[in-house]
């Protein structure tokens, strides 16, 4: 590894300005103008992505789906590109630290949106762009009771009516579809029925008979269109490329300009190999290494049905909350809402085999959150089901308290809008993975317990995720190689491994965020302790870390240590 050349952050930012074309008066922008531009961008984005707005608790456009016409796509991409160029020309060398941080964060947000449109081109390559718009368009109206059922039912009817036309836009746009993405999209489209015919119809009792007829008519037409879209994809799969990697140069661009990471693809891959070796060895050092492989037979009780399973899962939170309050390893804010466990809708199973977490949205008035877990089956070989039966606390802590739910709830309460809007995946997933082992190291789990073994396995397969992500997207591995690596190196069953590989293929770099983020937080923890000396308190470190929102750890080092060297390394 090369020894970094250390320069001051002011010099680095000034150099960035020299390397970027200037735009006349734009160079003299003020911090206030930056905040104004950012606020206008968030408002524009929310209106142009109404389904995501609904998911975030902003229900102004609940009756709409995104416009995927060619003109609308081009206009959105042009707007982001032009705004990014404008922000890059801002001269920030004379700004204070906090204002310069906001500029870097907003620029990274725009870089992400521009990169996805310019390089990944989801509208042209990924059919699931359109299936997900339909599924989330309804799911976002159901997950919380933010309005009366009739209001939400009418919004659902309006969205359902728009779906056939949206899917036709998708057919026109998909000029370079990827076969792997098409297979996954087809599975999701054919699994959507229960969401539309079951979950959605819980809103129907409060509508009139005429409104219900409209709802059912629109629903049936949407289901038919989605099934037809899946058939259309099937008929064309033979002409599609199996998978198109972004390549190492683009991968490195994403790491640097979006995540502000001081690592390139090769270094990230090496980190994954090191951590994988460590956690495989730690499993082997357990007195009973089989504890790392969840086994429901070791459980004191096995839930009799889905309802009992979800209730048992949710009930274990109280133990974790009591422990955190007694030990003060982190402060639980008073505004934390309830965290619920729910069944995963079938439409999301192809790429989310372990489920997913829904935190309070940026604009939510409801502070509750959810973790959606796969359908209960006591005989299932699915890793997440087996783990949840034996001891759900490691995954519950990751998804809930002190993990995602608590961290994102705190982030949502920031007053700085640019930082509140910044959802750095490396920090978000890194924090949640870090808390798993932090709870174990501070004494919450017994030595040589199933929970301890599970935590080692969870870290092991998160480390395996790095190798899959980097090698898939830099073009070194096929999808089947990725699946086998998850099974052989990560210790997953084939069902979980296929879902993990699919998720890695669809969401580039998402799978590296867990272990890379955990490593960065551990590195920062050690440096923070050295700086604090005898005044060090673990709980104070955690509180300071979370108080800044979901920011890149290179930025957090500048804030907590007054040291910008890691950020300077990332910006070179």
Key structural traits:
mainly alpha; 3-stranded mixed sheet; 572 residues; globular; 3 domains; disordered N terminus
In short:
With 572 residues, this protein is mostly helical. Helices cover 62% and strands 2% of the residues.
How big a fraction of the residues is strand? under 5%
Question: Given the C-alpha coordinates, what overall shape results?
Answer: globular
Low-confidence residue ranges: 1-26
Q: What's the number of helices?
A: 27
Number of domains: 3
The total count of strands amounts to 3
**How would you characterize the largest beta sheet?**
3 strands, mixed
Spell the H/E element sequence: HHHHHHHHHHHHHHHEEEHHHHHHHHHHHH
Broad structural category: mainly alpha
Strand order of the largest sheet: 1-3-2
Report, as a whole number of angstroms, the end-to-end distance: 15 Å
Q: State the helical fraction.
A: 55-70%
User: Averaging pLDDT over every residue, what do you get?
Assistant: 92
Output the radius of gyration.
Answer: 24 Å
